Amino acid sequence: MINKAYKFALEAHEAVGQLRKYTKEPYIVHPANVARFVSSVTRDKEVIQAAYLHDTVEDTLVTFGDIEKHFGARVRRLVADVTKVSTKDNGLRIHRIALDHKHYAMASANGKSIKLADMIDNMPSIIEFDPKFAIKYMAEKRELLPLLDLGHPTLYTKAQGIINAYYAQTDSLEISA
After folding, report:
1. pLDDT for the residue 109
2. Gap between the Cα atoms of 59 and 27, Å rounded
3. Quick one: the chain helix, strand, coil %, rounded to 5?
4. Which residues contact 27 (CB under 8 A, 6 or more apart)?
5. Of the residues 11, 25, 58, 143, which is catalytic?
6. What pLDDT sits at residue 170?
7. Catalytic: 171?
8. DSSP letter assigned to residue 170
9. What's the count of helices (H) and strands (E) in the chain, helices before strands?
10. Structural domains in the chain?
C-alpha cells in the first residue's frame, strides 16, 4: 500500500506538471522526502501513505474523496490534517496563515508529525534559494512550531533545530553588520 501511495502521488503531481519550485526536480521528490522522515519515526503504513499524499489535494486535481476511495478514511483524515484550509478569498497572507495555523493546531499527533516532516524538507531549500522570502516564511514556521508539539519528538526537535540555526545565523549577520 505504501508503494501504491507513492505511485498515486507521482501520477497526481505529474498530471499537473508540478515541479519543485527552486530546483525544478520532479515534485515527487518532496513527498518522498516527507515520507522518508515520517518512516524514520513510525512503521504505521497509513501515516506513511498520508505523507506521500500530503500535497495531492492542495496541489493537484485529487479530492479528499479520491484519497478515501483509494486509501481509506484514516489516510483521508491525515491528509486533511495537513492540507491548507485557507484560500486567496481569505484576504491577506497574514489572515490565511492564521487560519491554517489554527487548522494545524487541531490536527492529530500523526498529522502534526507529517506537517513537521513537511517543514523539515521545505525550510532548507527556501532558506537557500529564496532568502528574502525566507525571512517571512521562517517567522511563520517559528510561530507554527509550538502548535505542533504533539508531533513526534524527533521530528519536532529536527524542525526546531533548523529554525534555531536560521535565527542564530541571521542574528549573527545582523550583529556583524
Report:
1. 98
2. 10
3. 75, 0, 25
4. 13, 14, 18, 19, 20, 55, 59
5. 58
6. 76
7. no
8. H
9. 10, 0
10. 2-176 (1.10.3210.10)
pTM of the entire predicted model: 0.94
For this structure, is 58 an active site residue? yes
Cell numbers for 62? 485529487
Cβ within 8 Å of residue 26, ≥6 positions away? 10, 13, 14, 19, 20
Question: Residue 66: what residue type?
Answer: D
Q: Choosing from 46, 59, 81, 100, which is the catalytic residue?
A: 59
Nearest to 78 by CA among 101, 46, 106: 46
Walking along the chain (177 residues) 10 residues at a time, the average pLDDT comes out as 95 97 95 98 98 97 98 98 93 93 98 98 97 96 98 98 93 58
117 vs 31: CA distance, rounded Å: 10
